[in-house]
Amino acid sequence: MTDIISWSSIEGLEKAMGVPAAHAFAKRLLGFLEVKVAEIPAAFDGGDVDAIRSCVHKLASNAAALGALQLSAAARDIEALCHAGKTAEAAARKDALSDLAAQSLEILRAKLP
Questions:
Q1: Using CA of residue 34, residue 36, residue 38, residue 41, what is the dihedral sign?
Q2: Is the dihedral of CA 94, 100, 106, 110 positive or negative?
Q3: Beta carbons of 102 and 37 less than 8 angstroms apart
Q4: Which of 13, 22, 70, 80 is most exposed, with the fewest beta carbons within 10 Å of its own?
Q5: What is the pLDDT, as a whole number, of residue 1?
Q6: How far apart are alpha carbons 1 and 9 in whole angstroms?
Q7: At what angle do helices 94-111 and 19-46 cross, to 10 degrees?
Q8: From the DSSP assignment, how many helices (H) and strands (E) are in the chain?
Q9: For residue range 27-84, what is the model confidence (pLDDT) as tens digits?
Q10: 5: left (phi over 0), alpha (psi -120 to 50) or beta
Q11: How far apart are alpha carbons 61 and 76 in whole angstroms?
Q12: Buried b vs exposed e over 61-97: b needs ≥16 C-beta within 10 Å?
């Protein structure tokens, strides 16, 4: 299950910032990521393509910074579908995105002190 997180991202932060600062920064990113994950259902339920695109774009960026690369890629795929006008296809991936997000958050919460 932990293979969905690339710890090299956080290790890079630790080397660049020092461990305490990197973990504080990662926790702030994790909080923001949690907010974006919580916004996924409402964004899709509202049917506002711009809201969906904005939500998944921000989710993808923060997920990548924390090493949740599978989550980031899944969010970017949905963002691309929205840009292409394939809203129904994007919506069909919502549950898989939410499941992957929940798994990623669980692992990150457990690993970050």
A1: negative
A2: negative
A3: yes
A4: 80
A5: 45
A6: 17
A7: 160
A8: 6, 0
A9: 999 999 999 999 989 999 988 899 999 999 999 999 999 999 999 999 999 999 999 9
A10: beta
A11: 9
A12: bbbbbbbbbbbbebbbbbbebbeeeebeebbebbeeb
Distance from chain centroid for Cα 93: 14
**Domains: count for the chain:** 1
Look up the domain containing 98 and give its range. Answer: 2-111
Both structure tokens of 40: 């996924």
Residue type, 37: V
Q: Measuring CA to CA, which residue among 82, 83, 81, 59 is closest to residue 72? A: 59
Look up residue 89 and give its two tokens: 């296809």
Return the number of other C-beta atoms located less than 10 Å from residue 42's C-beta.
Answer: 12
